[in-house]
Target: Adenylate kinase isoenzyme 1
Amino acid sequence: MADKIKDAKIIFVVGGPGSGKGTQCEKVVTKYGYTHLSSGDLLRAEVASGSERGKQLQAIMQKGELVPLDTVLDMIKDAMIAKADVSKGFLIDGYPREVKQGEEFEKKIGKPCLLLYIDAKAETMVKRLMKRGETSGRADDNEETIKKRLDLYYKATEPVIAFYESRGIVKKIDSELPVDEVFSQVAKAIDAL
Ligand SMILES: Nc1ncnc2c1ncn2[C@H]1C[C@H](O)[C@@H](COP(=O)(O)OP(=O)(O)O)O1
Ligand SMILES: [Mg+2]
Model:
C-alpha cells in the first residue's frame, strides 16, 4: 500500500505554534495542488468524532504535550494513502515534532525532499496565537498552554531542523513578513524542486 506514495514529493513544514504553517500550506494547495496534511487537524478531527481515542488525545493536547508517536504517524499514513492517486505532493504540517518522529516517518512512509522551516520570533507567535484564540475555539490557544507549546517547540522540534540541515534539505522562511511575502519565499523553494 505504501508503495503508492513512494514516488510522491514529500515536504515537511516545521515551525513553532502560530508561526504561519497552516496559512502557507493553504496557499501551496491553491497554487500547486499539493495535499495538505496537518497532524494537529487530523488529531482534532479524531477528538471531534467523540471516540474513546479522541478523548484521550484531547486530554494530552489540552496540556500542550505531544501525543504518542504511533497514533499520529498512522493517521498521516492513512490520509496519504487515501490521496495517493490524485496528489502531486504532500505537505506534512506540524510533523515531525521531534527527531524520532522524523526517523519513524522515513521508515514507514518515505523521505522528504524539502523541509520548510517557517521561522518567526516567539513574541510574534504568541501575539498571533492569542489573536487566533479569539475565534479558533482551540483548547490550546490560551496563554498558559501557548507557553508550554513554545517551550516544547524549542526543546523538541528545533533539533529536527538541525537534523535535516545536515542533509541539506532545509529552506528557512522568514515568517515575520506579510503573508504574501512569506509565500513568495515558499513558492521559490518549491519551484526549485
Ligand atoms: N505572515 C503572517 N503575518 C501575520 N499574521 C499571520 C501570518 N501568518 C499567519 N498569520 C496568522 C494567521 C493565524 O491567525 C495565526 C497563526 O497562523 P497559523 O497558520 O494558524 O499558524 P500555525 O499553523 O503555524 O500554528 O497567525
Ligand atoms: Mg496549524
About this structure: The domain at 10-187 is CATH 3.40.50.300 (Rossmann fold). The first helix runs from residue 21 to 32. The pocket of 2'-deoxyadenosine-5'-diphosphate (ligand 1) is lined by residues 15, 17-23, 128, 131-132, 175, 178-179, 182 (CB under 6 Å). Residues 9 and 89 are 5 Å apart (CA to CA).
